[in-house]
Amino acid sequence: MLKLLLSRLATAVPSVVGVLIVTFMLTRLLPGDPAAYFAGLAASPQAIAEVRTKLGLDKSLPEQFVAYIVDLAHGNLGNSLSTGQPVAAEIVNRLPASAELTLVALFVAVAIAIPLGVLAAVKQGTWIDHLCRVVTTAGVSLPVFFTGLLLAYVFYYLLQIAPAPTGRLDVFISAPPDITGFYLVDSLLTGNAETFWSALKQLALPAISMAIFSLAPLARMTRGSMLAVLGSDFVRTARASGLSSRTVIFTYAFRNAVLPVITTLGMVFSFLLGANVLVETVFAWPGIGLYAVNALITSDYAPVQGFVLTMAVLYVVLNLIIDLLYGLVDPRVRLDA
Amino acid sequence: MKRRTFFKTTVAASAAATAAPAIWSEAKAQARNETLLIVTESPPNSQDIHGVGANRPAYEVSWNTHDRLMTYGVKKDANGNDHYDYTKLEPELATEWDLKPNSVTFKLRRDAKFHDGTPITAKDVKWSFDRAVTVGGFPTFQMAAGSLQKPEQFVAVDDHTFRVDFLRADKLTMPDIGVPVPVVMNSELCKKNATEKDPWAMEWCKNNHASGGAYKVEKWQPSQEVVFVRNDDWKNGPLPKVRRVIQRIIPSAGNRRALLERGDADLSFDLPSKDFAELKKSPKLTVVGTPIENAMMYVGMNVATKPFDNEKLRQAVAWAIPYQQIMDTVMFGQAIPLFGGADNKSKGSVWPQKDGYSTDLDKAKTLMAEAGYSNGLETTLSFDLGAASTNEPLAILVQENLAKIGIKTTINKVPGANWRAELLKKSMPMIINAFGGWLNYPEYFFYWCYHGQNAVFNTMSYKNPKMDALIDKARFTTGPEYDAAVKGFVDMAFEEVPRVPVFQPLLNVAMQKNVTGYRYWFHRQLDYRQLVKG
């Protein structure tokens, strides 16, 4: 097991190194001159040159790359110019916000999509199957920023049920002490019901808008995979042997159908981390996506590099977890295969 | 768990749950009344206005947390709103000053203290001014605009006397001491946090303020929120009315508007013109729109290369722009027209002012023929995507009308981060752009935008020795001679039209009815010190 883990990690090393080089090159190749941008409104060419020297941008590319790698080895991802903060600290601060949102959204999506998919497959052609089709089509065709704005308009502006879309907490409630960085968990651990409730309310709309978006692939995949399994010989045999339909569906069919669903889940999760960018903008969510977009707009190299690197590492970890999950769910998938 | 104990705990818990919300909301309501909640689009990136790349929201932080020697007085604008008065300098840290031809001597307030309790002395002022002219970049440049260039110019005579020696007679020197850059910093505190590599404590000052201003930063969460709390010991002006100010970053304009309309936020700049036009009709909010001084949106043409080196062709363009349509459909009336005047002559020493152009396609076509382009021509029209909500529709309207006189344009959208670099290259034939200067003097604008020194903002690469002579003359003269010089360069700018003025933008702010005391400042940031929430 440990050996497997290590070998999987070893294969990830080249991709991380590749990501490092590519992001470094890409940020430099992009049009845009950060020195001109940050020198301010009334800058003269000599003022811009001064800023350029200060940022180390007057050095050659290989020199800049070496400096970047040396910093990286010391755990220093550089400083963001647009927020004035060290990138590593910012990412550590912001990642939990994005992760909390994504996980809650994924949880909501799974809680709806899997029962819906299973039901649609079992009762093929009935109203529930049609419902599944409508929900998934709608979910996948509505862009996530649109659902977000619509939900905010209806539930905040018109109905006044949801709280103001001002980020992770109501403005007048202070954040819980930083334990995991997940406000829901931290507020529970410290027994602060008010903060928990506020965090949950703030989380509801963005999480739902993301869940609607990710419902579609999960429900469709569950339905399709269940249909295939339900039509297979061993299910017919199980039914013929007089097993209850509950046992047939859940113990035999679903267990076999879940493998492609997990693959999709992994894809949806990584996809959601990207979709975060839009939802975070709409709901002023202080997550990592918003951070990266702002950095990109201002040609702020360090955060963009830091963001891509973090994402690459996250994807590697995610893939590893999914690989391991396969083995747990289906013994036929050999881990050492 | 036993049934009975379970029952008991459930009852107790639900009792607590029903009782609790009342207490919370009361505490919240009180906090709400004493706090001004501002929602804004982009976050400050520093607490130090001298920092590399400090952005405009950072100017706001610095303005409210630091003192300057002098500040500006106040007047009423045409709509009866408070407006800073650039003709009147008033005491802030300095109680009085003695202006001589070669120097100015400031007397400092004796009981003024920094936030940490140390008295503010002349050596702090000297240290801060030295810092501004030494660290380079924007602060050094802004100081130089008022001929404040060398540390030797700044003398701490004694603890409460500070003198500035002039390099030359420059009428911008005094006004420049009142702009956001020359702040007074706590030199001892800064030195404690300085390092050998960083003698001016630039790193530390990014996230900390060593100052004595009217507000202190209580909570600094980069790109999320900043919480300010009033400095109750502030002596350098009347004590502000608002105890706490929270500045929250809400990137989505639609949500900022919703927050205002629902009464959850107190004040916001940064909304699209359409929203402001609609909010002005709403009885729920106060909207104040102030023309931004010394600023204009214009169509610029590169006179250094073909085809726009041709004056007749530039005039043809000026007659072809759909001005009124831009005002109505792009700006929703939220701007001051700079077209349709009686003629192309200056109407006095003010800037910006209306030129004589309006939309007249026949005249434009005649000029096209006279310019030798009766068969038309092709060119590109560039704009900054960073302000696409205004620039894009404007570009499309201009493109449509130019096509009618035979100028075929391709629209070139430049990403915000790249715009400054593209301007610097001065290779774009035709652009849509805006410029505004802090100091409200026509010659200040012309010095940046029309002078042959060819600064970044002379986006047209316009060089004319006659124009330069008039601008230089205006900078260092007064009286009738000054007025004649201003009239001279304004007339020339209108006649030769290297840039076609379109409109003067407004600085709009929307706030709740119970928020009063808003004052327009040349730096276009919010001054919390005059605001009242009642």
Task: Please give a structural write-up.
The complex is a heterodimer of chains A (337) and B (534). By secondary structure, chain A is mainly alpha-helical. Helix content of chain A is 75%, strand content 0%. Chain A has a domain at 96-286: MetI-like (MetI-like fold, Orthogonal Bundle). In chain A, helix 5 runs antiparallel to helix 6, helix 9 (193-230) crosses helix 11 (245-282) and helix 11 packs antiparallel against helix 13 (301-329). Chain A starts with a helix and ends in an 8-residue tail after the last helix. The mean pLDDT of chain A is 83. With 534 residues, chain B is of the alpha+beta class. Chain B contains 17 helices and 23 strands. Chain B has helices spanning 3-34, 56-65, 122-134, 138-144, 173-177, 187-192, 202-207, 253-261, 273-281, 311-320, 323-330, 361-370, 388-404, 416-425, 442-449, 465-475, 479-496; strands at residues 35-40, 67-68, 70-76, 82-91, 94-99, 103-108, 154-158, 161-165, 183-184, 215-221, 225-230, 244-249, 267-268, 285-291, 295-301, 335-337, 377-384, 407-414, 430-436, 499-512, 515-516, 519-520, 532-533. In chain B, strands 13, 14, 15, 16, 17, 18, 19 and 20 form an eight-stranded mixed beta sheet that branches. A four-stranded mixed beta sheet of chain B has the order 1-12-11-10. Chain B has a four-stranded antiparallel beta sheet with strand order 5-6-8-7, with helices on one face. The termini of chain B are far apart. Chains A and B meet through helix 2, helix 3, helix 7 and helix 12 of A and helix 1, strand 1, helix 4, strand 12 and helix 8 of B.
